[in-house]
Amino acid sequence: MRFFLVLSAFSALCLPLSTLCVPLHAQMILPGAVNAPAQTKVKLPGQKSGAAKARVVFSRIPGDEAVLGRVLVHNGSAGALEFTKGASGLSISKLTLAGNMISRPGDSCSVQVVAANASPLTPTGQPEGLLRYQNAIPACRFSLDILQGAVIIKSETEICKFEAADCQARPNGMWGPRGSAIPDDQIKADNSARPLAETALRASYKNLMEKRTDRASTRLVAAEQAAFSSIREELCRDYALEDKHGFCDTRFTEAKVASIRLRLGEKLEADAGATPDKPKKRKPRRIAPPPLTMDAPSF
Questions:
Q1: 8 A C-beta contact, residue 73 and residue 175
Q2: Are 254 and 58 contacting, i.e. CB atoms less than 8 angstroms apart?
Q3: What is the pLDDT of residues 71-90, one digit of tens each?
Q4: Which of 13, 166, 183, 241 could disulfide-link to 179, CB 3.0 to 4.6 Å?
């Protein structure tokens, strides 16, 4: 009887507020049980189902053709760098550096380092995963790594001085397309490529740490991974309109993936247009038309 009264009272309260009444369900929580948020599993291309380890999503690195026929500018805004390739290999066909005057450091200047005659480059292997070349310009010796549509330059002296032209310049950093001229389709492609590269980088660092057998070396890898974002920010913060297109961030992340892959012992092969792996499109099957049949004439 008491149960009936309570139920009746509840029904009476719900009548005027019928739209707010919802059925209640009893729920039992065991001691120690916690509602954990759902975890999203990311499956990288090439990863098998189950407990298989994630594989890096880049199967190839950029080759020489990735920078041919392009005008690269320092930080997407200054100078000019062009390449040519012949029987003797890759060469610099044009190099203009923008900098400051030696006599008046506050005034800007530019100097044509390579103009008429191409300057040959010497291949030095893949010390950090990507193809690397060394130039033979006495006043400005530097190495460069080939990226997809860009290069990263590291000069031996950081500052190149050209006394005759009263000009000094810093060529170090990212040389790529002019920031204001990157087309929308390139921006869209990089917006898709960047998260793939970052996922691959995390997976690569994880695999690298798993190969370490002592805590000291594991901590060094963890510290390197933690510092990567700040190093990338320092390299790319001066790239023109970087916050709009993210070109420098994407290329530098892909370069770091190649570097970690090399340390993992993977063989890296150069390709003209290295991009994240994509599923191959299957050609549609051609279905042969049914044989033609002719009805026998009736007499």
A1: yes
A2: yes
A3: 999 999 999 999 999 999 99
A4: 241
